[in-house]
Structure formats: structure tokens, C-alpha cells
Amino acid sequence: MLTLDHLAVVAPDLAEGVAHVRDCLGLTMPEGGRHREMGTRNHLLRLGEATFLEVIAVDPDAPVPPRARWFGLGDAAQVRADWDSGRRLRGFVARTDDLDGVLAAHGDLLGQAATMTRGALSWRFGVRPDGAWPADGAVPYVMDWGPHRNPAASMPDLGASLEAIVLTHPEPDGVTHLHAALGLADPPKLVKGPGPRWSVRIATPSGARILT
Asked: Given a cut of 90, is residue 148 above it in pLDDT?
């Protein structure tokens, strides 16, 4: 079974991504860290005991990695095009305790396992050879935290919590079947329309806000 782990805003520039979340939610995200394997860095916002929001972008101070960057960040032109079209919240990452089993069954879609790090944390993450989002973001990336578990509980609590997730997609029935085949627990609400496009409702100290 796959469970929502965290949401991902993919930005052309980290400061631009943090500013977008601040504009939407009225909250400034604390810094996360760097991922040396991918040449990226992030900021993180706790949304619950085991759920968080990530803004991720290329780290301009890091060397170019020997493999394709995750979250499609190796294609700067496409990241910018998605950003400018409003596709900023690009999807989510789901966790599992059986990453090898999930990738054995769905590796063509989800990729192969690689070990990632951020500071003292390490985890295993499914990455496609091209680094692209599975199904252009209609399907989550998959990961296994191992013994570390999701770090949200140790993040500063700024009073934000996730209330609802909606995916707009031109073929919602097909995506529903795909989510079921993957064993996705509590799948998002699906709405027919241009996409894939994600939106979430997040409770904040100033009221419910929408992030896209």
C-alpha cells in the first residue's frame, strides 16, 4: 500500500518557490537542506505528524549529478514552462514499506530505487531513468524512509495542516484505475479537465488557503 508522504512544489529557483507558498498560505517555509546525489535543495513545511510540503529546486552551488535529476529538474526549460503556466504544485510522493516490491511490479512507470540523503537522513527513492514525474505527475513518486521514518514530526509547527487534495485530469477514470492498481491509500479527488493539475486546501492560522 502507498500512503501520502509529502507534496512537492517544483520551482525554477528556490526563492521563487518559497515566495509562491508564502503568497498562497501566508507562511514562510523553513529551510530543509541539500541532496548531494541530485544537486538539489529544499524548504519544508509541516502539514501533520507524518506529512509535509516541500519546495524543491536545483542547487546552483552543487555539481551537476551523473544521473537525471528527480522531479524533472534536469529540464530547466520545462520546469519554467510548467511554473509559468501555473503548474507549481506538481504532485506528491508516497511512502511504502515494500519499495522493492512496488518497483518490481511497476518499474516501467515508477523507475528504479536509489539511495538519497539530506544531512543525516537517508532513504530509498524510485527514480525513472529520465528523472521525469511518473505519468506527468498524475502518479506519485514512491519512497521508503526505512528506520528513519517521515521527519515531519521533528519540523517546526507553523499551524498548517492538509485538508483536501484535488487532481484535475483529462482522463480521471483511467487515473483512478491506475491509483487503485498501485494500491494508493486515500487517493485524491479527481476532476475532469485540463491537466494534470494539482490543488490542495491547507488550514493555516489565518484560515483555509489554496495552494496550486
From this structure: no
